[in-house]
Structure formats: structure tokens, C-alpha cells
Amino acid sequence: MGKKRNRLQVIYDILNVIREKSGRIKPTHILYKSNLSYQMMEDYLDELKLKQFIVEQKTKTGKTYIITDKGIKYIQEYSTINNFMDAFGLG
User: Fold this and answer.
1) Max Cα separation, the chain?
2) In this structure, is residue 35 part of a structural domain?
3) How does pLDDT run across 55-66, given as a tens digit for each residue?
């Protein structure tokens, strides 16, 4: 069994899923790709909206989430930190 993800990794995973889908995604796709329970996903999405990493857009068929520039910056900075940790055997 793999190592348990920490909070920062989960946030990275959610934002990266959105970015990989052209920056716009439906919640069901986030649920499947991020490997979270529905309630946990909702909690993370609420936090990401509050911190302005994503915005929610209501559509005729439901809602979609769009990554913001701040969310993209998080992905870049997280990757930098992760690469640093790996380079020094801290990961």
C-alpha cells in the first residue's frame, strides 16, 4: 500500500486534475481522479474556493470548477518544493 497523502499533496492533486482538463472540470471528474470521498472532496473544494485557487461556475447541467492563476502558482511552487525535497532525500 502506498504512502498516505498529506493535505498539501491532496490540494496539489485536485488542482493538477483541473489544470490537466484545460483548466475546467466537473466535480465528478475531480472525485474520480483525486481518489477522495465525496465529503472530503467538497471540503477541499470549499477551501480552494475560499483561498481563490479555483472558482465555481454554475452551468445548465450543474457546475464546473476553473483553476485560477493563484491555483496554477500553487502547482508550480509545490513542484519546486517537491523537487527540492527529492534532490536531498527528504521526500
Assistant:
1) 49
2) yes
3) 999 989 899 999
Domain-embedded: residue 74:
yes
CATH number at residue 36: 1.10.10.10
Task: Please give the single-letter amino acid code of residue 27.
Answer: P
How many degrees, rounded to 5, is the angle at CA 71 between CA 65 and CA 2?
Answer: 90
What total number of domains does the chain contain? 1
Q: How confident is the model at residue 39 (pLDDT cuts 50, 70, 90)?
A: very high
Interatomic CA distance for residues 86 and 26, integer angstroms:
32
Amino acid letter, 11? I
Q: In what order do the strands lie in the sheet with 62-67?
A: 24-25, 62-67, 54-59
Q: Give me the helices (H) in the chain, please.
A: 7-20, 27-34, 38-50, 69-87
Q: How long, in residues, is the chain?
A: 91
